[in-house]
TrEMBL record, chain A:
Protein name: Ferredoxin reductase
Top-rank taxon, per record: Bacteria
Keywords from the UniProt entry: FAD, Flavoprotein, Oxidoreductase
Positions of the Reductase C-terminal domain: 325-404
A Pfam family annotated for this UniProt entry: Pyr_redox_2
Domain FAD/NAD(P)-binding: 7-306
GO cellular-component term (any): cytoplasm
Organism this protein belongs to: Parafrankia soli
Alphabetical list of InterPro entries matching this protein: FAD-oxidoreductase/Apoptosis, FAD/NAD-bd_sf, FAD/NAD-binding_dom, FAD/NAD-linked_Rdtase_dimer_sf, Reductase_C
Keyword Flavoprotein: yes
UniProt cofactor(s): FAD
UniProtKB/TrEMBL annotation, chain B:
Name of the protein this chain belongs to: Bifunctional 3-phenylpropionate/cinnamic acid dioxygenase ferredoxin subunit
Residue ranges the record marks as coiled coil: none
Entry keyword Lipid biosynthesis: no
Record keywords: 2Fe-2S, Dioxygenase, Iron, Iron-sulfur, Metal-binding, Oxidoreductase
A molecular function (GO) term: monooxygenase activity
Domain Rieske: 4-98
Domain of life: Bacteria
Source lineage: Bacteria, Bacillati, Actinomycetota, Actinomycetes, Frankiales
Amino acid sequence: MPENHARVVVVGASLAGVHTVRALRAREYAGEIVLVGAEPGAPNGVAVDRPALSKGYLTDPDPSAAPLLSPTELADLDVRLVRGPAVDLDLGTRHVVLHEGRLVEFSALVVATGSTPRTLPGVEPRQGVHTLRTLADATDIRAACTPGSRVVVIGGGFIGAETAWSARALGCTVTVVEMLPTMMQRGVGPVLGEAFTRRYAAAGIDLRMGTGVAGIEGSDRAEAVRLTDGSRLAADVVVLGLGTRPETSWLNGAGLDLRDGVVCDERLAARGARDVFAVGDVVRWRNPRYGEDTRVEHFTNAVETAGVVATNLTGGDQWHDALPYVWSDQLDSRLQVFGRIRPQDELHVVQGDLDGSFVAISGGDGALQGAVGFGAVRQLMPYRRLLASGASWDEARALADGGLKLPRFRSQVGL
Amino acid sequence: MTWIHACTVQQVPEDEGFRVPTTPPIAVFRVADEFFAVGDTCTHDEFSLAEGYLDGDVVECPLHMARFCLRTGKVLAPPAIIPLETYPVRRDGDDLFVDVPERTDDR
């Protein structure tokens, strides 16, 4: 039932939090909005748009990154920005507790505290070892990646691969260490993962796939990475690209259901609490599309969850069941993934080939499950629509073989 | 404001836009019998909306799914927050002219 919330407090001022605020005002929410920002290194606690941080921000001669909210927009949105971090939540009295003990009362709460990069268990932080999340992290990596320096990227997922490519572009000698047999296997599956592994190797990046890290050598500064296969990689710069863990430590003991994220229902409402929602990397919700509890660490999910919560806070009743979408810049082109690529599913390249631009589809359980495009933004679009319509695998394959009207590749589809 | 020759009616495809290589570029779209000219570059990220997905009088950027109204330039879906520029279009026979501000250079 539409409740009139006098004050919505959004904790976290990165993509999901900022879009929640925008979406609330776009839906004509007229009450008070408090945004708690605690982005490390940001003077007002508001994060920058992160996608560039592993890409252009590392390689552009003159990089820039503006906070997601300008002072003008803050004023236009009529938002009170409060410096965090939030350290505790009292569901009984409906207060968020800020670091210096200040209390912020809410009638509805949106948890948007995002996630923190994972580190290597047992490895103490030291100079020369970086994670990549904030503008300050990117600035440090950029400064460290001088031409000729030896860079070891641990983790060959989307961010690891982007960072490796950027470091290579900066003139570094780059090695990627990945536990799985191929690059980006979780994101695009083994077949496409293998193709990207081949292409990254051909581009001059040293790839150590199927290998773990035994330790990092060096007393106050990283000097080398020891691998589980016994080899030792001398390193000036080590970048950890190991994914993230949801930032829920401030909610411990508050009475919310926390299991690798804030556990929420289909509407992104926290289980076991009233008028508490979660958005972005931190929400683990019952995804009606797949009937599973899901947590997603990607841009589009952050924007979409913000829209759903804003709708549900303004009298609507919306489930978050959007078709998953991820993009990444790989090599010198754009990778896009719609739906999901599961290891057990079949994969067919329906246009182009794996050494160039391509579109591939994957299917299983009788249904089209996912579609991947590389340097093929327009060509991928019909498959997105097919996925959204719930097409069967046979239908998708028949259309790909014959009838589906596909735009041709333009001469070179780059970024 | 200056009227420039943008393209011919035949150059505008049914299901996508025609990119006019001005600075900044302009995209011309056909919606039934009407023509619309808007800024070609998505206001969220660098992508040519002439290559976007056209649905009625709405164009969707295929990179991050931002949507814009071709009539008003208004943002209809995030992540974009800034509206598109819109430009008046005049049809003369098979030729389409677009009224651009002075700073937009002709080809």
